[in-house]
């Protein structure tokens, strides 16, 4: 039998939460694609990532999230085909940082990006399973900068499982038994301005479709409609790559997150990269958590990341920290790139 705090149960069963509804991520700087569809097709390889997050361990009904994503480019010109050297390593990329992305901007067309995300998110009796298809277009703005715009279309299945709720009075007629479900469309949009040295992104998730109804196959004991509400999520993020030496890079970044009817959330991050192969960093999420991050780019195919959130909010009385693991696979990596060129 699962123990579940009464107030926490009510919080989810009435679907009146004003906090974030979409999954929380600590390593979004490694896979901004899960927040912004404009990133689809940004690299010179097919980027596949799997993420597992166990939030607030030891807290009853705490969030657990699994995300699988993949995206690739279509029609992206090969750097070697327009006179530039493929940026396969740190020593090759550094001299190119203040030169055009390609030898002649007039000869470089825009390119397309496509992708998919699959997410399974469980919090107490509430679960959300979603799938989205993504499209993006990357337009050269100058010799060193591009602007990408993208959108994702998908569906989410919302499920409430009343069998996961332990009540003081198990015969309470106001509470249903079994599961109720709802299917809701999802639309997200985003923009991403980027070069070799910086990025600036803006995205809005859960647009248009706000309210939804759960199905009720048996309402003999309860005729109240079970309603759900999705709140719009807005993300603004920026980062800058600083290279003080041939072996080190420093990437400070920030994320502003606004959820309708909830306070503004601010993440301040710093990432330190050594020889494009090993990295570590830290993040502070205001009034929520301090995050330690570490990762390694093993080769041109595999990279790994791990983060631990130390909870700063009042929930730390009942909960331990949060673990998050990201496994990345780079497919069709013709230039044998070890470290991503546009997502740090």
Write the layout of secondary structure elements.
Layout: H1 6-13, E1 46-54, E2 64-74, H2 90-96, E3 111-123, E4 126-140, E5 145-161, E6 179-195, E7 198-205, E8 211-213, E9 227-229, E10 233-240, E11 248-259, E12 265-274, E13 278-285, E14 289-297, E15 302-311, E16 322-331
Antiparallel strand pairs: 1-2, 1-16, 2-3, 3-4, 4-5, 5-6, 6-7, 7-10, 8-9, 10-11, 11-12, 12-13, 13-14, 14-15, 15-16
Secondary structure category: mainly beta
Query: pLDDT below 50 for ≥5 consecutive residues: which ranges?
Result: 1-19, 80-106
CATH domain class of one domain? Mainly Beta
CATH overall fold name of one domain? Lipocalin
User: In sequence order, what are the helices and strands, one letter per element?
Assistant: HEEHEEEEEEEEEEEEEE
Shape: globular
Strand portion, in percent? over 45%
Q: Span between N and C termini?
A: 43 Å
The CATH architecture classification of one domain is Beta Barrel
Main β-sheet, in a few words?
A: 14 strands, antiparallel, barrel
Mean pLDDT: 82
Q: Please state the CA-atom Rg, rounded to the nearest Å.
A: 22 Å
Strand order of the largest sheet: 1-2-3-4-5-6-7-10-11-12-13-14-15-16
Number of helices: 2
Helix content: under 10%
């Amino acid at each position: 039998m699962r123990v579940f705090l009464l107030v926490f149960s009510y919080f989810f069963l009435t679907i009146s939460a004003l906090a974030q509804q979409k999954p929380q991520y600590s390593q979004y700087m490694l896979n901004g694609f899960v927040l912004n569809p404009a990133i689809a097709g940004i690299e010179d390889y097919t980027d596949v990532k799997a993420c597992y997050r166990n939030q607030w361990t030891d807290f009853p009904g705490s969030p657990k999230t699994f995300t699988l994503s993949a995206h690739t480019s279509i029609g992206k010109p090969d750097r070697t085909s327009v006179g530039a050297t493929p940026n396969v390593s740190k020593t090759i990329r550094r001299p190119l940082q203040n030169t055009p992305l390609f030898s002649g901007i007039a000869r470089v067309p825009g390119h397309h990006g496509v992708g998919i995300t699959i997410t399974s998110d469980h919090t107490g009796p509430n679960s959300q399973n979603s799938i989205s298809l993504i499209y993006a277009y990357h337009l050269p703005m100058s010799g060193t900068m591009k602007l990408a715009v993208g959108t994702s279309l998908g569906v989410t299945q919302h499920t409430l499982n009343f069998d996961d709720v332990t009540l003081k009075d198990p015969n309470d007629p106001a509470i249903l038994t079994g599961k109720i479900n709802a299917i809701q469309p999802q639309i997200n949009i985003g923009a991403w301005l980027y070069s070799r040295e910086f990025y600036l992104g803006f995205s809005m998730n859960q647009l248009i479709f706000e309210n939804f109804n759960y199905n009720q196959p048996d309402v003999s004991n309860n005729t109240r409609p079970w309603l759900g509400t999705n709140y719009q999520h807005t993300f603004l993020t920026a980062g800058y790559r600083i290279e003080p030496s041939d072996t080190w890079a420093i990437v400070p970044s920030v994320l502003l997150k606004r959820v309708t009817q909830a306070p503004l959330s601010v993440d301040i991050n710093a990432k330190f990269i050594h020889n494009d192969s090993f990295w570590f960093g830290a993040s502070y999420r205001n009034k929520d958590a301090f995050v330690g991050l570490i990762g390694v780019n093993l080769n041109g195919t595999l990279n790994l990341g791990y983060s631990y959130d130390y909870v700063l909010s009042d929930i730390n009385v009942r909960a331990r920290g949060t673990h998050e693991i990201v496994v990345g696979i780079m497919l069709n990596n013709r230039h044998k790139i070890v470290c991503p060129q546009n997502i740090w």
